[in-house]
Amino acid sequence: MVISLVKQVRKERPLIHNMTNTVVMNFTANGLLAFGGSPIMANAKQEAPDVTRLSQGLLLNIGTLHEDQVQAMILAGKTANEIGIPVVLDPVGAPATTYRSEVCRKILDEVQPTVIKGNAGELAHLVGMEVETKGVDSTGKGDLISIVKEVSEEYGTGAVCTGEKDVGCIEGDVFINETGHPLLGQITGSGCLLGSLLAAGLSVAGDTSDKILATLNYYGQAAERAASRPDVEGPGTFLPRFIDSLAAEVEHAG
Amino acid sequence: MVISLVKQVRKERPLIHNMTNTVVMNFTANGLLAFGGSPIMANAKQEAPDVTRLSQGLLLNIGTLHEDQVQAMILAGKTANEIGIPVVLDPVGAPATTYRSEVCRKILDEVQPTVIKGNAGELAHLVGMEVETKGVDSTGKGDLISIVKEVSEEYGTGAVCTGEKDVGCIEGDVFINETGHPLLGQITGSGCLLGSLLAAGLSVAGDTSDKILATLNYYGQAAERAASRPDVEGPGTFLPRFIDSLAAEVEHAG
Amino acid sequence: MVISLVKQVRKERPLIHNMTNTVVMNFTANGLLAFGGSPIMANAKQEAPDVTRLSQGLLLNIGTLHEDQVQAMILAGKTANEIGIPVVLDPVGAPATTYRSEVCRKILDEVQPTVIKGNAGELAHLVGMEVETKGVDSTGKGDLISIVKEVSEEYGTGAVCTGEKDVGCIEGDVFINETGHPLLGQITGSGCLLGSLLAAGLSVAGDTSDKILATLNYYGQAAERAASRPDVEGPGTFLPRFIDSLAAEVEHAG
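The joint structure predicted for all components is written out below.
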């Protein structure tokens, strides 16, 4: 499944409209290109819906919000729903401030995501559960399965909780991905990039939970392969090898 | 010519005002530093013209537009025209949305660029020709020479169409650059960075087409040298070696 | 002192609110993570004070100003003063434009920084002294000690002037750091990242000048170690090794 998904993405080169935070834009674009997608980024409300209309997937990531972008995200999200392309919502730091929390609600009132992905604290927050968080990073443990089940049910969407293990749920079915590497947690935007790859993975034909799981699996495997390289000695040297791993011929993906 | 241009840039260290998209800012700044220029970035209309006034070249790249930036770009572009420094316009994704298309026209109504650079789809769009495009990436073939001739004539400017081969035109003379490497197409912002380097290359004394061609040639050669390194196995490991190549002692540039 | 400071930062993992320029956000986040801090970035006035309230340190860097961000910076800075967390102000390019200069004054009228850090030209400008500058980079020599003394006295703050040697002053005491490497000057944002690390270093218990000096020392040492690696041949390959060095086990810090 992993190999066939990545091959299909590379065949179709889906254009993904990344409405994402300014910290991770470059890394997201390079990572998505490596995976096989084609990135486009546009945040102005004057053009966001038009860009979505050209695209095969939409990512809404609220990591560095500003007022205009919120309006543009809602317009783009509605357009994506209209034309039937997948929408991934990443509620970065939703529990951190009232503003982020309210923006999430507003987006969720107007836009139907295909998948909501976040860490435990972010997802728990969306369903009124509490886990210990620190800034945009979740440090709590909580019951991950119950969190993703609740999110999935309340919002009628797929839910993916990333962490040491990734736990997902869609229509009551729970799935778990165990690939990955601790170095992913030491580079900024590894979760944000995954959101973009999920949008790309979801854009091709196939069963939704299969596509999510294959994308998670490939992503974690790429990290494992990169981390195993002898010249990788920390997060700095991990990053270029990780991009290479994402871009590798899929036969090597194991 | 290539060596003398790069030496001159490194002697003068031209300050280049990069009004560019948020995806590529960091890569552009590092690449321009490596080439020998000095980057400055300012997008607020309150200071953009003042920053241009300090600079030896201006880049206008519309990759992630927002309303305030458009006004600031026009003010900066007019200032650049007034003080007689080169202006490079990169109409990123111009065919993708009505908004981008209109912004391009508005800039071109008010600002005289020294060079317009883009891919085939972007340049063709500016002269009402059609080539197949996908998001911000051009996939069409079209007649590149006729595209750059038309753009150059219609806007009274140099025109550079980047791609497998780079094709340029200024005052009726056509020139072609054949250096480069496919890995450039796998990292985001390689075209955007080139725009900044063109502004730096154009800022020193000399014939315009010579300076453009030398910059294109050096850029492609740097990519070739980087790609040939044994530790480069994909776009991730290519990127740091490419920056090193751009920064290399120019005697090694061949 | 260096080792104990870095160990303490890694134990506490201070959340640092980075209100910084769009050029260096990704590099700042990765560098701060490597040092041992936890980055958060939020520039909207709707949430900036709330994010500051969660944080253990605040960085105000004016490298790519826009109007909304100025208001948000002042709100965040006042909040930081209220709750007693360290504030680092980096007046990037203050002498370059009237707007930047005025924004600096406005921030300094309303916010009490713990440390102002900049290059010679930026600091000199804040106290009405003149040194030769080029864009955001200082090229002048001036009397660094008198500059930091003046800044420290006029604003009742620590002052750090970065350059070949870093010269600092707090409450009349002058200190000098001699670690560092010329490659730091060839990558964009090395000064900006240092501002974020200073906020993290200042957030733990201890004497202010000790903490500043230890942070400067560690930063420069990390650059020296990275530059000495055999595979580092320029600014491109230096960058990943530098992040690794910042992240290294502190026993190796020497």
